[in-house]
């Protein structure tokens, strides 16, 4: 049997992801600050019968940016058009999307930091004045023709808000910074999702999953599905023992570190003497994309105090050394260890 999921199975999983997505602000768990900020923005616009300001959603993967963009459209009762930065390679791609928008429509551009530069400039004008200049013809005879757009609300999402050019960032009326979820919030996420899946999971089981979800609802839902599978196949109750057995099978340790996290940490400690080591060197040594290490692995290791970032590179902390079972070097100035 192969480990690969069949296309049907994959879409089945994605179906679950869709089913677990909260549809309204009220259903959206946690992020209380962002929720009330968004709610105010949307309510004020609705009361004044205008389109709300453009919204930028910034934060690490899996915290609910795509979900919130859908919620914005639902709350406004307007259609949603979804696209992404990498799909917009030319200004013309963006012009086609913008000119097809209906009044009040919500345009979601995921990974907006990866849009082509020429499209970015077109977007500035579109966001500000609901207009674009379309170039007609080529060379010396080319002219620009202004085109009026329907008023729309842009919702941009980015995992790398630092990469957004200032003029683009400044044109968003509101930037929501999504933070990692607290354990209590994740408990609510898991409890809600277990209910939707019809999976009877004990309170301790819920807490055990929440504690290993590294502050991320997407991970909480994924771990929950693996635990549910385990419970189904082995016919075990949804209790702590099942959670522990299932997550041990998938190499998720009690702090939520997975295989890649441990590999990165081990590489820093064992291959680079604890660091400092540069991001790209580290990425090559574990055979991963630098972007994945930077956006997914590193923030978590830094947050849990296992790794620090210095101007010269990544350095494993004392806790980091201990986590991979190595003995940290003595702190500078500390008395030498007794033999
Ligand atoms: N606040 C929340 N309450 C409950 N479930 C949530 C919440 N936020 C996210 N989720 C769940 O987590 C999953 C991932 O969320 P989403 O796709 O919105 O993340 P994202 O920020 O867009 O990630 P990426 O940067 O990778 O695109 C969703 O399927 C949803 O079910
Ligand atoms: Mg997303």
Please write out the topology.
Elements: H1 7-20, H2 32-47, E1 55-58, H3 65-76, E2 80-84, H4 91-99, E3 106-110, H5 117-129, E4 131-136, E5 143-148, E6 153-158, H6 166-170, E7 174-177, H7 183-197, H8 203-211, H9 217-233, H10 240-249, H11 259-271, H12 279-286, H13 290-303, E8 307-310, E9 313-316, H14 318-323
Parallel strand pairs: 1-6, 1-7, 2-3, 3-6
Antiparallel strand pairs: 4-5, 8-9
Helix pairs in contact: 4-5, 7-8, 7-9, 8-10, 9-10, 11-12, 11-13
Compact description:
This protein has helices at residues 7-20, 32-47, 65-76, 91-99, 117-129, 166-170, 183-197, 203-211, 217-233, 240-249, 259-271, 279-286, 290-303, 318-323; strands at residues 55-58, 80-84, 106-110, 131-136, 143-148, 153-158, 174-177, 307-310, 313-316. The protein has 339 residues and is of the alpha/beta class.
Characteristic terms for this protein:
binds magnesium ion; Helicase, Ruva Protein, domain 3; five-stranded parallel β-sheet; disordered N terminus; Rossmann fold; 14 helices; 3 domains; 9 strands; binds adenosine-5'-triphosphate; two-stranded antiparallel sheet; 339 residues
Radius of gyration computed on alpha carbons: 24 Å
Query: Which CATH first-tier class of the largest domain would you pick?
Result: Alpha Beta
Characterize the overall form.
Answer: globular
What's the N-to-C terminus distance? Answer: 53 Å
Which oligomeric state applies? single chain
The kinds of small molecule bound in this structure are: adenosine-5'-triphosphate, magnesium ion
Report the total helices: 14
Give the topology string: H per helix, E per strand: HHEHEHEHEEEHEHHHHHHHEEH
Q: What fraction of residues sit in β-strands?
A: 5-15%
Portion in helices:
40-55%
Could you give the order of strands across the largest sheet? 2-3-6-1-7
Helix/sheet category: alpha/beta
How many distinct domains? 3
CATH architecture of the largest domain: 3-Layer(aba) Sandwich
**How confident overall, as mean pLDDT?**
91
Main sheet? 5 strands, parallel
CATH superfamily of the largest domain: P-loop containing nucleotide triphosphate hydrolases
EC number: 3.6.4.-
Catalytic activity: ATP + H2O = ADP + phosphate + H(+)
GO molecular function, one term: four-way junction DNA binding
Protein name: Holliday junction branch migration complex subunit RuvB
